[in-house]
Design brief:
Blueprint lengths: L1 E5 L9 H13 L4 E7 L11 E5 L3 H18 L4 E4 L5 H11 L3 E5 L2 H4 L3 H11 L4 E4 L2 H9 L7 E3 L12 H10 L6 E6 L8 H7 L1 H7 L3 E6 L13 H11 L5 E5 L3 H10 L2 E4 L13 H7 L5 E4 L4 H8 L3 E2 L4 H14 L7 H8 L1 H15 L3
Parallel strand pairs: 1-2, 1-4, 2-3, 4-5, 5-6, 6-7, 8-9, 8-11, 9-10, 11-12, 12-13
Helix pairs in contact: 1-16, 3-5, 7-11, 8-10, 9-14, 12-13
Amino acid sequence: MRVLVITRNLPPLVGGMERLLQNLVLGVTEYADVTVIGPRGCHAHLPETVETHECSNKLAGFLSGSTLTALRIVRKDRFDVVIGGSGLMAPLLFLLKTLFKCRTLVLLHGLDIIVDHWLYQRVFVPTLRHADQVVANSRNTKRLAAKKGVPEERISIIHPGTHIPEQPDAERKGEFLQRYRISFSRYMLFAGRITRRKGLSPFIRKSLPTILHACPDAGLVVVGDNASDSLNRQGEKAEVLAAINEAGLGDKVMFLGQVDDRDLETAYACATVHIFPLIEVPGDVEGFGMVVIEAAAVGTPTVAFDVGGVADALDLVGGPLIQSGDYTGLIKKITKYLLSEEITSKHPDEINDLISWNRYSNSFHIALNATTPH
């Protein structure tokens, strides 16, 4: 099988979608000849066997560059399936299908269905209806796609997988805590892009003071930064800093910024609990919640609000799902973890098969085969 993958969501850009697409490419190379059109610098993060064509990392530059590149190489070579890494690629896939009769598959993550921009809704979303196969990351994303007119019979749900790391030992944890000067006896972890929908500033205002009053030796560690590379650039860090200053908790919150994969795994493993205090934001949505399964892969539980597609992630790994906006319930559950060191309801060994990249790759292989003509 010859497969062309077109996506801006690859390293060196940083985020859950980027890790997902990188590992998807790695998985597909096990059973297909893969060519990738991706952002500048992606070649260094993919196997040598993958033919790579790099375009600008900037959104407008990537859209124009990937279109010209795809037209050139698809005119020259035949591909069994062309994969778009997000709804952003839907118009290009529609063009390739129209001109060259390509079979097409689009990955949907949630935001790429509902992003609040008139041009996107009028041009990008309608072309999704013409894809031969759509892979949604959660039941909520499938619902959103169907609501926009994508035929339900063409939508498959495949929950993302994650790398299952070796469990960090005491030495590795100690080195991490010392290097980042984390002195809290235990901490809550927030991981991901700091956007409005992640709900970090409301959490700090409505929950953190009460939690720290009950657990004075605890703290909050934040891994991530503003979403400068995302489709919806709702940077929120300034609001988060303002909330911290208002609450007088400057010594109780630490920002580590962007970290590499090894440090991210260790940050999860050192945390007592991972928090995901999502809020409803018009024109934005949490499609699945990769951070939930990343935390679970090292045995760290997540406490989350039931917003977007996060319920699917917590169904896989087990853990409390709090009604949206119930900050009292959120406080009680987080405090319980911090005080009792309650562990996740499923041991990491029990959930590895549910959240591993192998499971995702095998499921995606089935969807890919369903896209190609027999």
